[in-house]
Amino acid sequence: IRTQYRRALVNDRGHSFDANLELSQINHSLDLRYNIPIGDPLSDVVSIFGGYEDQIIKESKGLEVNTKTTTVGIQRTINPVGEWQRTYSLRFRGDQLSNNALNVNPALLPPPFNVAGISSSQQALLAGFGLNKLVSRGGANPTSGFRQFYQVDVGSRTAFSDANMVILRVGLRALETFAEKHQIVLSTDVGTIITTDFNRVPYNLRFFAGGDQSIRG
User: Fold this and answer.
1) Hey, which residues does 51 pair with through a beta bridge?
2) How far is CA 108 from the centre of its chain?
3) What is the pLDDT of residues 164-188, one digit of tens each?
4) What average pLDDT does range 102-121 have in this prediction?
5) Which of 12, 39, 84, 134 has a 20 to 30 Å separation from 147 between CA atoms?
């Protein structure tokens, strides 16, 4: 079950509000976002956001991982027409993790799940900066285009994070139409986590292979 409440105009200063709720057998989530224009309301917005998610991830051999995540943060998005979009963000996430790994070889599991029935708390305060640019032709149904995305997030053990870390991500997308009604789409994503203690990096901030946006998906 999914439902959304959106108020595009909260007051005469152009504030807006979004709420999204999702309920299923293995996932419960609520996301809230309040948007405040700064200067030009079409190109400079500050967003205050928060959310909660309770998710059960069913792995092979009967393993179930339960994650409960609370997120809160603030983000400023500057998006001049035809130029680089810039985002500045500060977000905190707290995770409560547990598993039922009673019949699974602990050597096959990553920390902190390599202890059967473990319950672990993880947290991270991340300061982020992102760049994003899209160039396209063809309007709402583009015939060609190229998108670039670059993101860096930094966390420190001295500032409410379990580990010192720098998370780097790059995403590239290209679209080109040839002949008639034939298109080729290319995409690549690269990411890395720089840290001195990877086992302390919160589980939900790590990179995992697969997913519906991957080659396998």
Assistant:
1) 31, 71
2) 26
3) 999 999 999 999 998 878 999 999 9
4) 66
5) 39
